[in-house]
Here is the input.
Amino acid sequence: MRERIFKETDCRIDAMTFHKLGLRIIAGVNGIMPKISQVNLRSFIEKELCIRIKSDTYLYLLTKYILYNSVISRDEFSFSSQAEY
Here is the structure.
């Protein structure tokens, strides 16, 4: 966002999304960055898979998805710039 604004206006400003601004305000007041979710994602996924995998249809679709969508993706924070992302 900053880079795009700079390209268009030639001005450097501290641009961010509404959500990032909110996190920054909360972190400034509390002194620590808040957790977005209290859900243990790994535990949640394991529990849901154990329930859903009992369905033959779901098992077929899951297997098909894993076989045909096994592209290694990168986390958005692993890029060094917005342009690289």
About this structure: The mean pLDDT is 87. Residues 13 and 61 are 46 Å apart (CA to CA). The radius of gyration is 20 Å. Helices lie at 2-9, 18-30, 41-52, 56-68.
